[in-house]
Write a structure and sequence with these properties.
Elements (H helix, E strand, L loop, with lengths): L1 H4 L1 H4 L4 H11 L6 H29 L4 H7 L2 H7 L24 H25 L3 H30 L20
Helix pairs in contact: 3-4, 3-7, 4-8, 7-8
Length: 182
């Protein structure tokens, strides 16, 4: 199970990428209430990193060498023993290319909504594979938080669109950008 769950730590749709995405995007956010939202959710995602790491530790701390080999965890074990290291389930190590920070408010908020949906889908897939209630319960909790984050980013997008001006226009809007289309 750890081999699958690890994707939510260091995979393309995992909690580490989400946290870095939101905490970096907040610097370009001109609206205090949306900047606060990015800070709050980014910080919460760090707590999710801690939860996933705790689950991984609990699942791997007492594995025997035979269990490591049988589960296919041996390739991870060679590099990290049973230490917690951010990788995807595929074995690809975490990379900053997993998160976007464009500086365009509307683009970033759409990216965040998509990221939350992708994370929810990953949690759905983990729940399809997990049968241990001690794993399923926290995974269900984390899945629910993805839904709440998606909704909150939807609210942030509405706030941003209501304040549409030269600081949050669609890439090239002639009414705001004098050099647009030249």
């Amino acid at each position: 199970m750890a081999k699958v769950i690890i994707s939510q730590l260091g995979g393309p749709d995992g909690e580490l990428a989400a946290s870095l995405r939101y905490l970096n995007q907040r610097f370009a956010m001109p609206y205090a209430e949306v900047k606060g939202l990015l800070t709050d959710i980014g910080t919460e995602e760090l707590a999710h990193v801690e939860m996933i790491s705790a689950i991984l530790y609990q699942l791997t701390k007492d594995l025997s060498i035979d269990e490591i080999k049988a589960s296919g965890f041996d390739t991870y074990f060679v590099d990290h023993t049973t230490g917690i290291y951010p990788v995807a389930a595929s074995g690809a190590p975490f990379t900053a290319t997993y998160f976007q920070s464009k500086g365009d408010i509307i683009t970033d908020l759409h990216e965040n909504m998509a990221a939350e949906q992708k994370a929810r889908t990953t949690y759905d897939n983990i729940l399809r594979l997990a049968d241990d209630p001690d794993v399923r319960d926290p995974i269900r909790f984390l899945r629910q938080r993805e839904i709440v984050h998606y909704q909150r980013f939807g609210e942030a997008l509405r706030i941003t669109q209501d304040k549409l001006n030269s600081r949050n226009f669609y890439a090239c809007n002639p009414s705001f950008d004098k050099n647009c289309g030249k």
